[in-house]
Design goal:
- The complex is a heterodimer of chains A (112) and B (112).
- In chain A, 0% of the residues lie in helices and 54% in strands.
- Chain A is mainly beta and 112 residues long.
- In chain A, strand 9 and strand 10 form a beta hairpin.
- Helices cover 0% and strands 54% of the residues of chain B.
- The model of chain B has no long low-confidence stretch (mean pLDDT 94).
Chain lengths: 112, 112
């Protein structure tokens, strides 16, 4: 069974631009969660989608948004990029409920 | 009180020793608990899940859960240098739509 995939793996943008990251969950998984990870900050939860509905949301500004499609694939968008948005963005999928969650390889975003 | 607290690292053990990683959580309703291992620059990898009080063993890893004390731990027997990584504890919070909440992690170094 294929794992969680994320595209692109690496991205370089400049301040003020916007970016869209994509995540394909494990087949059959309906829950997709997004995290931001920066050195020293640990995993910061962005949001979670389940069957196209946002179920949980972290404490990030409105510049960070996401959506999930009917095939469970998810995208997250960051508008008006800031230098502080440079981070590893991780996507994870799960069947939902109490089930295990599996991470993708991440997208490393660099904002110049 | 922080939602998920892990013993502050870094934790350093000699090769062959037992490494003990601890975690406490605040949501009394949590029923499922996960341990992830994260190598530097990589995404978290699920290594153990535990749902019932007591011990669960998988190879050199043993997870221990005590819901009454809101405590979960991970023991790594016969530690190897390849175990050197950050270990993340994550309970699911039923009260928050089964949101997976991560601790900040404990950095483990196994010295040859």
């Amino acid at each position: 069974k294929a794992g969680v995939t994320q595209t692109p793996r690496y991205l370089i943008k400049t301040r003020g631009q916007q970016v869209t990251l994509s995540c394909s969950p494990i087949s059959g998984h309906r829950s997709v969660s997004w995290y931001q990870q920066t050195p020293g900050q640990g995993l910061q939860f962005l949001f979670e989608y389940f069957s196209e509905t946002q179920r949980n949301k972290g404490n990030f500004p409105g510049r960070f948004s996401g959506r999930q499609f009917s095939n469970s694939r998810s995208e997250m968008n960051v508008s008006t990029l800031e230098l502080g948005d440079s981070a590893l963005y991780l996507c994870a999928s799960s069947l939902g409920g109490e089930n295990e969650q599996f991470f993708g390889p991440g997208t490393r975003l660099t904002v110049l | 009180q922080k939602e998920v607290e892990q013993n502050s690292g870094p934790l350093s053990v000699p090769e062959g020793a037992i490494a003990s990683l601890n975690c406490t959580y605040s949501d009394r309703g949590s029923q499922s608990f996960f341990w992830y291992r994260q190598y530097s620059g990589k995404s978290p990898e699920l290594i153990m899940s535990i749902y019932s009080n007591g011990d669960k063993e998988d190879g050199r890893f043993t997870a221990q859960l005590n819901k009454a004390s809101q405590y979960v731990s991970l023991l790594i027997r016969d530690s190897q240098p390849s175990d050197s990584a950050t270990y993340l504890c994550a309970p699911r919070e039923r009260t928050r739509n089964y949101k997976l909440t991560f601790g900040k992690g404990t950095l483990l170094t196994v010295n040859p």
